[in-house]
Specification:
It is a single chain. This protein is of the alpha/beta class. It has 2 domains: 161 residues, Bacterial extracellular solute-binding protein, family 7 (D-Maltodextrin-Binding Protein, domain 2, 3-Layer(aba) Sandwich); 145 residues, Periplasmic binding protein-like II (D-Maltodextrin-Binding Protein, domain 2), CATH 3.40.190.10. The protein contains 12 helices and 11 strands. It starts with a helix and ends with a helix.
Length: 367
């Protein structure tokens, strides 16, 4: 039987960079007395988030801290928030060029470069967090992600999860499809394209600029994440209509990306430290998001007079039908995207019955 180390090395060679799954936990650094003194490896992480933004900003910092601790100081990763070293939407290029050795962002921001990247964050009416994780870890998703980023010299990991999102904040209630037409809405990812087909103008605005854009009426509505992160950005001060659930982002996987050459240059045990630091954050962040979103939603409603609304059935069904059309057309134009879409759809269909029985039925039964 192939041992764990052999599995790791074979996978790294096959993909031409460090990666793969080193199952069974982290290989920690040997005691200091058994090592020769070596200089600390200095890495930089760039992110798409304001520093310590509740949710993804905190995930980025924890990954850095965890690597620093778990490596026993052999690697020191310094975090640079959005705009400090590179702009929000240039994180991928910075890691690819080794301007920074790590990045923390969302894969859907790279659709202009790789259309298939959207699926590794979320897609409209797609998989929930537990389903998405099953696809990545157990049903071939990670291999497709690795394959997509390989030409750019970047290795991706799940590095956090903000959970299912809300559909956004709107100045005026949405009661019919006509109420959407002509509006400008900050909405990223494929959800923005769905909205475009319904007469909305989607605008992709960096996180740090969303509040000002809503305040100055550059946009009529905004979506970002869930109640915790949204309230930290202060949207409730400007708008009181909060729509959910987030048809456009039913999952919220944050990605941690690593320069392939930098990763391959580490000893195997430190490669495992980097990988496990990201893996742990995917679990920690989702638990945190579930707890904090619940608390924040209560505060928004009880203290800020926010009204939580759902899209009318006519609007929701039109959004769903349009989403299916968008996904089909979108993936027909790009072979890698089609391959990823087919794997994603197959996994979603395979998991649907169990999700309905184990999650949906239990929630219905206890209510």
């Amino acid at each position: 039987m192939t041992n764990k180390k052999e599995q790791f090395l074979t996978r790294r060679q096959a993909l031409s960079f460090a990666g793969g799954v080193a199952a069974g936990g982290v290989v920690l650094a040997a005691p200091a007395l058994a090592q020769e003194a070596a200089p600390t490896i200095e890495w930089r992480m760039v992110t798409s988030w304001p520093k310590n933004l509740p949710g993804p900003g905190m995930s980025a910092q924890r990954i850095c801290d965890r690597i620093n601790l778990m490596s026993n100081g052999r690697i020191r990763v310094r975090l640079h928030a959005a705009g400090e070293l590179v702009p929000s939407f240039e994180v991928f290029d910075a890691v690819s060029s080794n301007t920074a050795q790590m990045g923390h962002s969302a894969s859907m921001y790279w659709v202009g470069k790789m259309p298939g990247s959207a699926f590794f964050t979320t897609v409209p009416f797609g998989m929930l967090p537990h389903e998405h994780t099953a696809w990545i870890d157990q049903m071939g998703g990670q291999d497709l992600w690795d394959e997509l980023y390989l030409p750019f010299g970047v290795k991706p990991f799940m590095g956090g999860n903000t959970g299912p999102t809300m559909a956004g904040w709107y100045r005026d209630p949405i009661e019919t499809l006509d109420d959407l037409k002509g509006k400008k809405v900050r909405m990223s990812g494929l959800g923005g394209e769905v909205m475009r087909r319904l007469g909305v103008t989607p605008v992709n605005i960096p996180v740090a600029e969303i509040f000002t854009s809503l305040q100055t009426r550059v946009v009529d509505g905004v979506e970002f994440l869930g109640p915790w992160s949204d309230s930290a950005l202060g949207f409730q001060k400007l708008v009181k209509n909060y729509y959910g659930p987030g048809f456009n982002k039913p999952n919220g996987t944050g990605e941690a990306i690593v320069n392939a050459v930098a990763l391959a240059g580490l000893p195997v045990e430190l490669q495992s430290v980097v990988e496990e630091a990201c893996r742990v954050e995917a679990d920690v962040a989702l638990a945190e998001a579930n707890a904090q979103n619940a608390l924040a939603l209560d505060v928004l409603q009880s203290e800020h007079n926010v009204t939580v609304r759902e899209f009318p059935e006519e609007v929701l069904q039109t959004l769903k039908a349009t989403s299916e059309e968008v996904l089909d057309v979108y993936t027909q134009k790009d072979k890698p995207a089609r391959k990823i879409f087919e794997s994603y759809r197959e996994a979603q269909q395979a998991l649907a019955n169990w999700s309905s029985l184990s999650l949906g039925k239990n929630i219905a039964a206890r209510s």
